[in-house]
């Protein structure tokens, strides 16, 4: 039984993370990198058995914690996101179709950006950007 947990596209590579169960009932984590090479794909596979998965994850966290690719500590970035989500619980979350419909309805009811922000749990700037994307402009109400 294989259950795909995650798929990540980075440049020309796609990473697949899935878990499967062996005949003996042990769990196996497979990480596959699939990289486009002309018309073909080159694949590299890493298999970790259940007794090694936790150690592998701990090592990855330790190494990634030392990376600072954008000039900022990763923990600080995580803290920043949590602080924003304390004020706006839906910050950085994907907009659903229902969110878009709710936003459109509130816009048509002429609620302010601040009121919409409060009701949708998103920052006012996020509301403004989404309104632009949905082409909700003041002249629609005139």
From TrEMBL:
The keyword DNA-binding applies. Gene3D superfamilies: 3.10.450.700. InterPro entries: PUR-bd_fam. Pfam families: DUF3276. The keyword DNA-binding applies. It comes from the Bacteria. GO terms for molecular function: purine-rich negative regulatory element binding; RNA polymerase II transcription regulatory region sequence-specific DNA binding. Keywords: DNA-binding. Belongs to the PUR DNA-binding protein family. This is Uncharacterized protein.
């Amino acid at each position: 039984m294989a259950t795909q947990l995650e798929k990540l596209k980075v440049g020309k590579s796609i990473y697949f993370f899935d878990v499967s169960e062996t005949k003996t009932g042990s769990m196996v984590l497979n990480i596959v990198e699939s990289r486009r090479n002309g018309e073909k794909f080159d694949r590299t596979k890493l298999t970790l058995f259940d007794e090694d998965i936790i150690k592998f994850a701990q090592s990855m966290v330790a190494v990634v914690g030392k990376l600072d690719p954008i000039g900022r500590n990763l923990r600080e970035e995580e803290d920043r996101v949590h602080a924003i989500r304390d004020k706006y619980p839906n910050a950085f979350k994907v907009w659903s179709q229902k969110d878009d419909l709710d936003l459109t309805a509130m816009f048509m009811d002429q609620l302010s950006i601040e009121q919409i922000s409060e009701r949708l749990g998103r920052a006012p700037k996020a509301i403004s950007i989404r309104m632009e994307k949905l082409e909700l402009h003041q002249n629609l109400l005139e």
